[in-house]
Hints:
- Helix content is 43%, strand content 13%.
- By secondary structure, it is of the alpha/beta class.
- α1 links the parallel β1 (4-7) and β2 (28-33).
- It is globular and about 50 Å long.
Amino acid sequence: MIKNILLTGATSGIGKAAAKKLLQEGHFLILPYRNEEKATALKKELEAIAPERFDLQFCDLASFESIRAFAAYVKNTYPHIDVLINNAGVWNQRFRESKDGIELTFAVNHLAPFLLTNLLLDLLRKAERARVVNVSSDLHQGTIDFDDIEFRKKEYNGIAAYRQSKLANILFTKELARRLQDEGITANALMPGFIATNIFQDLNFFARLMIKIMAKSPEKGAETIVYLALSPEVEGITGKYFKDKKEAISSRQSQNIELAKRLWAVSEQMTGLHVSVSE
Ligand SMILES: NC(=O)c1ccc[n+]([C@@H]2O[C@H](COP(=O)([O-])OP(=O)(O)OC[C@H]3O[C@@H](n4cnc5c(N)ncnc54)[C@H](OP(=O)(O)O)[C@@H]3O)[C@@H](O)[C@H]2O)c1
């Protein structure tokens, strides 16, 4: 059966490799992008695989308005979404803000997938046994600093902001899985591996050189994403963390249900999820 798969962050790195593989597997892809030039380049690469089985649409994940406009387009265009893959992510070494004035790493890595997923829940419900796949990282150690989630009181630290956002990915996955457990929709998170991509572009030259030498290919990074999206082996499995296509143990904090519930409430507030806007 051809599945409708929505994948974020397909213009680069792991997402691009996953898009190609999913297209080769015969599925239909809905691909949000933020950069026209990169989208044009991606279009050419995907057309060589399957000219009419993907839909590239603008969506800046650093803007709630853009996410809402994109979600409205998807809802008006597609009857259901079988798989939603929240892959797009950033690593900022300097403090930056999203269009909504929120610290950029938290906004793009956590609030964007939180809002997009919630806005598309009805379409996931219309699919048979839909799956949500959230790309996290083994760097998810630490906790959520609810007193200063955006690094406004303490000094900005790029790796700490990234760690917090990747922990948020797992907590979001677990709470989503809990909320959807009776609806046949599964949600799982994963570590794609240490992969040479553009995400490290903010790091210094030597760090980037080391990464280039040591890291694995984007194709390798895409493997666990594709596995969680399509494999019958994970049918019905939900709320788990995966690595190398196997269930793995995530940090103690990432399994803290109270933390997950609190993060959900804060995320609802920060995204204005339940505030009605004209679409
Ligand atoms: N690489 C690793 O070693 C590693 C390890 C663990 C986890 N991860 C996770 O893997 C995921 C994919 O990262 P990657 O390594 O493949 O990095 P990447 O090559 O930098 O790709 C990131 C993707 O996210 C998109 N994106 C970023 N900000 C966006 C925005 N505001 N709106 C729309 N799209 C946006 C990028 O678009 P542009 O092409 O326009 O920039 C790009 O397509 C991330 O969630 C990352 O945290 C990576």
